[in-house]
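#struct-pred
JK: can someone run the complex with D-glutamic acid? inputs below
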Amino acid sequence: MDKRPVGVFDSGLGGLSTVRAMKKILPNEDIVYFGDTGRVPYGSRSNETIETYAAQDIKFLRSFSCKMIVAACGTVSTAASSVIERIQEPATGITKPSAKAAALATKNNIIGVMGTSATVNSNAFEEEIRKTNPNAKVVSVACPMLVSLVENNWIDINDEVANAAVKRYLRPILEAGADTVILGCTHFPILAPIIQKAAGGYVKLIDTGYEEALYVKEVLKENNLENSAEHKGNQQYFVSDKTQNFCDVANVLLGEDIEDKCQFIDIFKFI
Ligand code: DGL
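RT: done, C-alpha cells with the ligand placed:
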C-alpha cells in the first residue's frame, strides 16, 4: 500500500480526460494535477521548448513526492518522450497504451490519428502502432484549432464552430477509410461526442485519457503502489494562469465543482 499521490500533467485542460477516467478506474488514488494554462498550446512549439516545459512540469509534480508521473499530454508523450523516459519514478505518456488499443481494435487495418502538429511530425503513434500491427496504414492529421476550442469552452455538441472544425480535420481520415481513430491529443476526448457524430457510429474512437488511466492502474498494481481500498481519492489542481477558465471547463467535464481544489502556481520557480 502506498499513500503518495499520482502526478498528472498537461499543457492545459486536456489532461483532465485522463483524470476523469482515473477517478472512475482508480477511485482510491490521490491525484495532483498540473495544467500549464499560462503556456498552452505546446503542440505548435519546437521539440526543445516542449522538452523544457515538460521538465519543469515534472519538477513541480515531483515536489509532491508522487509515486507515479503521468504525462496526460499527447504532445509531450510523442515529441518529448525522452523527458518521460528519464523520470526516476514509474511514468507513462499516452502513446503506448492508446496505440496498442487502436492496433488491436481496427478490423480493416486503417487507423486515423488526430493530434497536434508536434505529435504528427514525431510519427510516434505510427511507429508504436506498427509494433503491434505491422500491416496497419496510419493517416495522421494535425488538428491544432481543436485545442483552442476546448481551452475556450466551445465544447457543446451543438457548437457550430466546433462541428465545422472537426468535420474539416476528419475529412482525410474518413476518405482514407479509417475504422479506428486515435484522439491523440488529450484535449480531444473532451470533443468526443462531436467527433463521433462527424465520424459516424461505425468508427471506433480511442479515448487516450481512458487508455492511459487503464495503463496507470496496471503499473500501480505491478509495482505494489496502490493506495488502500478504504481510501477515498482526493484531487488537487494547479494551473500556471488564472484559475477561472480552467475551473469553468473542469466543472462540466468532471461533473463536480473544483474551485476550492484549484490554485495558481508560478511554474517559472521550477527550473
Ligand atoms: N493536451 C495536449 C496534447 O495532448 C494539448 C496540445 C497543446 O498544448 O497544443 O497534445
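RT: quick notes.
The chain has a mean pLDDT of 96.
The beta strands are 6-10, 31-35, 68-71, 91-92, 110-115, 137-142, 180-183, 204-206, 235-239, 262-264.
JK: thanks, will look after standup
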